[in-house]
């Protein structure tokens, strides 16, 4: 459980004073970031990584909308489709791939301000929602 | 060090061939390539080959002949054929062997590829939440590219229209019906801004090539094609690649840029000298991006080149003259070698209805695939 919600994988998250954030790694030698966390630095090839919460806000770097139901290993529930997909630039850290709450192409624009939320993507065997991370637009 | 020549080419038609296994298609292609240069499988000193979904290439010897040759399997996703070719190039160029064969083949089920994240070292959540979808990545990549270079999305339909027009002129292609740009643009949206007809489909097919030392090529054929440069590169920190849960904010060139530059450098030939090019067109956007990443033109220049017909068979820079992946489908293991097969036909002057006019002398091939790899070749007659 993260922020009282069932998630697809709690290891992706960390609770912060501002709310749940994605948990990444930062290289203590060269300051490169990764998501999820990993032991080796892909930039300087060292292995001095530390855990770091990633920014909860950023800007949309690219986007699309998933137009068909993917095959397995996708496990999403139809009620949560279609879904938007984007890459969001988190300032000073990295560009993370994410589901987007918005699915209308007209309302998605590269450069728009977005923030992290936990969004349902499937229902479990008892009908309770399972959440993953998603970004949604914030009004300026 | 010896140069390397391609002396025999063979293909099993791409598309869907019910009741014929991928391995049987590979054997067909191998026999055609051997026939093309008048050799037998017992003359082969080595083999490199692979498929993604149709079995191990080294087991083909049970049908082709149990001769004891070293036959090494290659598994490099979309660059499987390219990697096999590069391995063969090294085997001959180093003087280790004089003549050998490369074989790429595949047979995939219908629909988009589904991949297990664990095979890529990614957590199960990535697949479960619907992010491990190749078609989605291509939508994201071209969306960003169009934005960065100020290119209007209309060009994506024009690229697909050209692919089906070329496919209609190629008797070995899968999709042989022309589709006009308006119909392509109006087709169901798969992953914005790419519609159904802008994507290639997984398919079936096989290609085999017989290669030998350049100084012995004329013993086997009157029209050898020389492999002047071949290079393979993987991704660097900061390049934006398929199946990436994240990418660095600090941007870097794609592996295509480095692989093509290395292939051109090895050949001593400049991109401006290319007469015919086969480049990875998994979808329309890929052809657009790869035209510039390979150095065939500048970023942003593509729109004008495509609109003016420069990339058509009769144009100044013919691209994907056999219809590319869009018209041939993508049997992963065979796709890269299909490009070389097509360039050999073009350089021999044997491409028939889809022949580039004016006796082309320099051919270029480029493949790109997961998880951020590219292989390129430069060929001359």
TrEMBL record, chain A:
SUPFAM superfamilies registered for this protein in UniProt: Nucleic acid-binding proteins
Sequence ranges assigned to domain ChsH2 C-terminal OB-fold in this UniProt record: 52-117
One Pfam family matching this protein: zf-ChsH2
InterPro entries hit by this protein: ChsH2_C, ChsH2_Znr, NA-bd_OB-fold, Thioester_dehydratase-like
The ChsH2 rubredoxin-like zinc ribbon domain, residue ranges: 21-50
PANTHER family, sorted: BLR3430 PROTEIN
Protein name, as recorded: DNA-binding protein
Organism: Pseudonocardia halophobica
Phylogenetic placement of the source organism: Bacteria, Bacillati, Actinomycetota, Actinomycetes, Pseudonocardiales
TrEMBL record, chain B:
The Thiolase C-terminal domain, residue ranges: 254-379
InterPro entries named in the record: Thiolase (IPR002155), Thiolase-like (IPR016039), Thiolase_C_2 (IPR055140)
Pfam families, sorted: Thiolase_C_1
Molecular-function GO terms, alphabetical: acyltransferase activity, transferring groups other than amino-acyl groups
SUPFAM superfamilies: Thiolase-like
Name of the molecule in the record: Acetyl-CoA acetyltransferase
Organism field: Pseudonocardia halophobica
């Amino acid at each position: 459980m993260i922020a009282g919600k069932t998630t697809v994988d709690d290891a992706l998250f960390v609770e912060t004073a501002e709310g749940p954030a994605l948990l990444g790694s930062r290289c203590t030698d060269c300051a490169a970031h990764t998501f999820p966390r990993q032991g080796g630095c892909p930039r300087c090839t060292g292995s001095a990584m530390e855990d770091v919460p990633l920014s909860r806000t950023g800007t949309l770097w690219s986007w699309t909308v998933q137009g068909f139901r993917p095959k397995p290993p996708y496990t999403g529930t139809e009620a949560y489709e279609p879904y938007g997909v984007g890459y969001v630039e988190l300032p000073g850290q990295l560009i993370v791939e994410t589901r987007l709450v918005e699915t209308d192409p007209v309302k998605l624009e590269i450069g728009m301000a977005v923030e992290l939320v936990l969004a349902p993507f499937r229902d479990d065997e008892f009908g309770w929602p399972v959440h993953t991370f998603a970004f949604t637009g914030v009004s300026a | 060090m010896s140069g390397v020549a391609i002396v025999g080419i063979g293909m099993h038609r791409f598309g869907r061939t019910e009741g014929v296994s991928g391995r049987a298609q590979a054997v067909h292609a191998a026999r055609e390539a051997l026939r093309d240069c008048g050799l037998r499988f017992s003359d082969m000193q080595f083999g490199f080959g692979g498929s993604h979904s149709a079995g191990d290439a080294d087991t083909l010897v049970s049908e082709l002949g149990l001769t004891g040759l070293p036959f090494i399997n290659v598994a490099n996703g979309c660059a499987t054929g390219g990697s096999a070719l590069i391995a063969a190039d090294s085997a001959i160029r180093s003087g280790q062997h004089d003549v050998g064969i490369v074989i790429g083949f595949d047979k995939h089920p219908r629909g988009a590829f589904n991949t297990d994240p664990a095979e890529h070292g990614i957590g199960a959540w990535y697949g479960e939440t619907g992010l491990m979808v190749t078609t989605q990545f291509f939508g994201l990549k071209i969306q960003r590219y169009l934005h960065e270079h100020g290119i209007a999305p209309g060009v994506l339909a024009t690229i697909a229209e050209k692919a089906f027009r070329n496919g209609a002129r190629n008797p070995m292609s899968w999709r042989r019906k022309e589709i006009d740009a308006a119909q392509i643009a109006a087709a169901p949206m798969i992953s914005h801004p790419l519609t159904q007809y802008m994507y290639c489909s997984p398919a079936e097919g096989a290609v085999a090539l017989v290669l030998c030392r350049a100084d012995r090529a004329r013993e086997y054929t009157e029209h050898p094609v020389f492999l002047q440069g071949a290079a393979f590169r993987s991704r660097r920190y900061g390049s934006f690649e398929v199946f990436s849960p994240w990418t660095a904010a600090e941007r870097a060139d794609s592996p295509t840029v480095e692989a093509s530059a290395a292939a051109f450098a090895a050949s001593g030939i400049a991109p401006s000298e290319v007469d015919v090019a086969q480049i990875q067109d998994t979808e329309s956007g890929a052809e657009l991006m790869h035209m510039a990443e390979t150095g065939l033109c500048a970023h942003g220049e593509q729109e004008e080149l495509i609109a003016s017909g420069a990339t058509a068979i009769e144009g100044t820079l013919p691209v994907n003259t056999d219809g590319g992946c869009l018209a041939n489908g993508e049997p992963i293991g065979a796709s890269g070698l299909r490009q070389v097969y097509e360039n050999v036909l073009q350089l021999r002057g044997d491409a028939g209805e889809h022949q580039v006019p004016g006796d082309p002398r320099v051919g270029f091939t480029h493949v790109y695939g997961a998880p951020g790899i590219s292989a390129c070749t430069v060929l001359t007659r």
